[in-house]
Amino acid sequence: MDPIAEQISRISEKVGLLVKEYRNLQRENERLRHELERKSGILAELEGRHADLERQADLLKISSVSVEGYPAKDMERIIEQYIRDIDRCIAKLEE
Asked: Binning pLDDT at 50, 70 and 90, where does residue 67 land?
């Protein structure tokens, strides 16, 4: 085979591999975009819950009245634990 033909053949093979890799990267990019959208939705939901729990915690701090049989201090600790849990979830989602 002619050296130029061999070189063209090798270049053609390399171009084929590059096209295949490019398509694989496009699929991976699309998958990652979908995952990012899903996690963004979850993050928005968790941030909304977090804000609600912070408001509830503020109300409990203001009030010294017991809620559903729990003293205000116990409720405050429970809500603060929920807030810490949600903060951990948000941190994991942001990774």
From this structure: low
